[in-house]
Design a protein that fits this description.
- There is one protein chain.
- It is globular, with a radius of gyration of 16 Å.
- The longest helix is centred in the N-terminal third of the chain and has 32 residues, at 2-33.
- The chain has a single domain, classed as Four Helix Bundle (Hemerythrin (Met), subunit A) (Up-down Bundle), CATH 1.20.120.
- By secondary structure, the protein is mainly alpha-helical.
- It contains five helices and no strands.
- Helix 2 (38-54) packs antiparallel against helix 3 and helix 3 (62-83) runs antiparallel to helix 4.
Amino acid sequence: MFQLRKKFTANRLRGVLMFGTVLLISSSYSQNEGQLTVDQIMKAIIAPMTSTIWGAYDIQTDVQWKELENAAITVIAAGNLLDTNEGDAANADWQEYNQQMIAAARSALKAIGKQDEEALFNAGNDQLYPPCEGCHQKYMSQ
């Protein structure tokens, strides 16, 4: 029981810290030092959280579901942060990819709320992967 509580506390702390980081970064950088780049947001926030969603399988505990919930919420928050980025945000194609990513993370969040692993798999693979891959193919080579 102690191990489970310790792991749950660590996962909760990690989720709170990640979400807090998104909020802190968005307020401090946009007001004081200029915004983070899309690359920074992708590498530090979105890539690790989408990997958590894509790597989900055989979910058996509430702690695992909570970690996935935190990941989906963080992807949504990071997508909203990207909406404020003045560089690529002006590009209509890029903006469409971002909106698709946010919508997919919302679908994942709904599946997580129902603890429906099949729906989560579908949201991750059928909805989240395509805009990520499409955006990477179009913009990462530039």
